Amino acid sequence: MLLLFISFFKIKDNTFVREPPAKETQYLDWRVTSAEQEDQLLVLPYTTDSSLSDFTIKTTLPDLNSTSVLILRCRYNTITAKIDGGFVYASDFSSIAGIRTRVGKDICYMPLSKEYSNKEIEINIQLQNNKISKSSLTAIILSSRNTFVLEYLRQNLVLFITAILLIVCSGGSFVFFLLSYFTNKHRMSNVSKSLFYLGIISILTAAWGLCDTHIFSLFTEKVVLDGIITYTALILLALTFADYFVCLYGDNKAIRFINLFARLNVIFQFLVFVTGFKDLPETIYCTHMIFVFDVIYAVVMSIKNLIKYENSEKLLFNIGNLLFAIFVAGILILYIHNRDGAYSYFSVMAIIIYCTIQIAITVIKFIKTIKKQAALHEAEKFAYTDQLTKMDNRRAYSVFKKHVGTAPLSDDFNIIYFDLNGLKDTNDKLGHNAGDEFIIGATDIIKKVFYDAQLKCRMGGDEFLVVLKASKDILTKRLFYFDSLIENWHGKLVKNISIAYGYCSAADYDNPTFEALISKADEFMYKNKNDYYEKNGKPHRPSLM
Q1: C-beta of residue 54 within 8 angstroms of C-beta of residue 117
Q2: What are 423-473's pLDDT values in tens digits?
């Protein structure tokens, strides 16, 4: 162990020292020619005057291999390349469903073969002119394709990890959304909706972050697909945030205006694009305006809620919203100042932190809601349950009676009314423990025989009511089974029990009411009870003297 410990600090291996392999990625010295300057050394990032969007860069290529590729990062309209005066590359016009577009045209992969080694290359670039910000040439890389892909993935590892975390966040959010949806009587409560929108926000942000940096196009070479996903995700993010704020702060005129603006923006962006009136990059400022409104609204509402402090969750919740709003405002400024900067990294990181905080807080609220609902359910159950017999009580009977109302009863609607014979005598002679055994024994049999009854309730001390939907044949069989169980019952304190009952069916009367059937069943029960006492030679209600 000591040797092992020392080896961590000082050890010399017996292998040969190998020279590190030369990097295949090369950054060449380029010279630029434009209307503003002539044959100057190119310094990146390079931006032309707003009125002059095209320029030429040239250099001498080194030794190339069969997989060499030249990568240019800029928002361009056209790119053409000549080697020894002959055209070797010309960018094509991008289109979506036949509609010309500049979406996704911010990276260019130019393949170069070995035959172009040590020759002069001249590239003409026409940049996009945008009202919000100028386009610029930010990077020129000569590399083998595989080396560039690996290096690019390594450089964007943080983005990959955050995108995966966002997808994990969305999965967790959707799981809790489903739990909230199926455990809440109102289904789509504000908690359920906020969890759902957080999941959508996480997915849209992950898609936007990955496609905005063109990681997918490294493998597919479909830069337009990356572009259209980027713009779609951004437009829907603005809309989803507006819907999310409704869940957080409720409905009011301000959020209604933002919501309407966000929905109209989706329609507007689609129509101006499919009609060819405007391209998506030219109208993206509308989406940015919605984000600005979202930020202002979040700041105002967070400050208002911070002033009226309610609990620690809401405090953390509103501080998170406030910080995120400030962060988004900074990202928008970064985007306008440098459209080709790393604002997407900040955006993805900000949203993953925000979503994590919001999901955590929402889950805490969800758990508290579940506990509250469980407590209310337990209280409700306690309120409608007889504590001794665990049957429904008189309050539950009143609710059932109200539910039935005066609606016509079906022919299979049956009422059975029970009354325990000799309960008072048992209490007086054997004690209340014996009386409780008597009651519990009787109710266990009732519950066992009429297990599928719509209502099984204790109406009073020794009176019980059962509402059963069944044919007369089934009812007769159930009562026969009931009599046999009563006859064979034996307890510890009470040797046997006797129960008087009366029953009637809706099929025996013309349009009977619920109360009328109960009255009839009660009448038949008392007749049965009188027969029992006459048979046993005991008065129905013995004197207290």
Answers
A1: no
A2: 888 888 888 888 889 999 999 999 999 988 999 999 888 899 999 999 989
**Residue 94 burial (C-beta neighbours within 10 Å; 0-12, 13-18, 19+):** middle
Select from 411, 415, 419 the least CA-distant residue to 397.
415
110-128 pLDDT, tens digit per residue, is 888 889 998 999 999 988 8
pLDDT greater at residue 182 or residue 421: 421
Q: Which residue has the tokens 């027969």?
A: 531
Residue 540 backbone dihedrals phi, psi, to 5 degrees: -60, -45
Query: Could you count the other beta carbons within 10 Å of the beta carbon of residue 226?
Result: 25
**Spatial distance between the Cα atoms of 426 and 33, rounded to a whole number of angstroms:** 113
- 449-463 pLDDT, tens digit per residue, is 998 899 999 988 889
Task: Look up the pTM and report it.
Answer: 0.57
Tokens of 370: 């579940």
Instruction: Starting at the earlier edge strand, list the strands of the sheet with 108-111.
Output: 108-111, 68-74, 137-144
Work out whether the CA dihedral 431, 437, 442, 447 comes out positive or negative: positive
For 352-374, the three-class secondary structure string (H helix, E strand, C coil) is HHHHHHHHHHHHHHHHHHHHHHH
- Rounded to 5 degrees, φ, ψ at 408 are -60, 140
The strand pairing partners of 46, in sequence order, are 137
For 58, other C-beta atoms within 10 Å of its C-beta total 17
Name the helix (H) or strand (E) containing 140. Answer: strand 137-144
Residue 405 φ/ψ, nearest 5 degrees: 60, -140
Amino acid at 409: L
Phi, psi angle pair for 359, to nearest 5°: -65, -45
* Span 153-163, average pLDDT: 77
Q: Is the peptide bond before 20 cis (omega within 30 degrees of 0)?
A: no
Give me 52's structure tokens: 């002059």
Where do we find the tokens 């199926």?
A: 182
Q: What is the DSSP string of 160-225?
A: HHHHHHHHHHHHHHHHHHHHHHHH-TTSS-HHHHHHHHHHHHHHHHHHHHHHHTTTTHHHH--HHH
Give the chain's end-to-end CA distance (angstroms, integer). 96
How much of the chain is in helix, strand and coil states, percent to nearest 5?
Answer: 55, 15, 30
Q: What is the mean pLDDT of residues 86-103?
A: 82
Closest to 284 in 3D by CA, of 343, 332, 351, 329: 332
**Sheet strands (E) in 364-523:** 413-420, 455-458, 463-469, 499-505
145 close to 69: Cβ distance less than 8 angstroms? yes
